[in-house]
């Protein structure tokens, strides 16, 4: 029994960090949508937010995999996550919507490197016999973050401001799986 629990030490840390980071991502998502709407008053500008990520993915994902294959997944995860935190930190200081979109392009590029790196890293970290259970728990964690994150984001916006929410949403959930 103790060996089964000991085998779950790293996966539990990883699941916890994925859950906390997911909450932070959804807090950020709520805040950035409201910030862009406040800056422009345009629903089309908010829709532009949703176009940037897929467009950047189309332009970058076909070559990020080959870049990631020959480098340390852990280092790529650390660098890109810190880069994402830095760029989110810059958003409240953007003077206009053009700079916000530019920052979002850099965020999407960093995420295009982070996501495949983390998927590969998780596959290397979690033994084959634990993957089904791990994946089901991770799916539950992601779904929970989808509910909890926007609720926290909305509450933070009501209690403070969008800029403050962006700071809390990004720096509160530092990815603890980067310690492995």
How do the strands and helices of this protein lay out in sequence?
Blueprint: H1 2-7, H2 9-40, H3 43-69, H4 73-90, H5 97-125, H6 131-159, H7 162-171
Task: Describe it.
- This protein is mostly helical.
- It has a single domain (9-179), classed as Growth Hormone, Chain: A (Up-down Bundle), CATH 1.20.1250.
- It has helices spanning 2-7, 9-40, 43-69, 73-90, 97-125, 131-159, 162-171.
- Mean pLDDT is 85; it is low at 171-180.
Index terms:
7 helices, disordered C terminus, mainly alpha, 180 residues, single chain
Rg estimate, integer Å: 17 Å
The CATH C-level name is: Mainly Alpha
Number of strands: 0
Continuous helix count: 7
Summarize this structure briefly.
With 180 residues, this protein is mostly helical. It has seven helices and no strands. α2 packs antiparallel against α7 (162-171) and α3 packs parallel to α5 (97-125).
């Amino acid at each position: 029994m103790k060996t089964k629990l000991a085998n779950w030490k790293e996966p539990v840390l990883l699941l916890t960090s994925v859950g906390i980071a997911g909450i932070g991502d959804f807090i950020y998502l709520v805040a950035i949508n409201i910030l862009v709407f406040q800056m422009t008053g345009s629903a089309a500008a908010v829709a532009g937010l949703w176009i940037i990520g897929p467009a950047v993915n189309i332009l970058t994902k076909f070559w990020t995999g080959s870049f990631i294959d020959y480098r340390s997944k852990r280092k790529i995860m650390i660098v890109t996550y810190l880069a994402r935190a830095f760029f989110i930190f810059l958003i409240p200081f953007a003077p206009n919507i053009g700079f916000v979109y530019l920052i979002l392009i850099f965020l999407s590029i960093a995420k295009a490197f982070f996501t495949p790196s983390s998927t590969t890293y998780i596959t290397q970290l979690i033994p084959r016999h634990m993957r089904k259970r791990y994946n089901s728990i991770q799916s539950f964690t992601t779904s929970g973050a989808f509910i909890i994150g926007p609720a926290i984001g909305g509450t933070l916006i009501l209690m403070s401001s969008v800029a403050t929410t962006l700071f809390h949403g990004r720096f509160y959930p530092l990815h603890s799986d980067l310690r492995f």
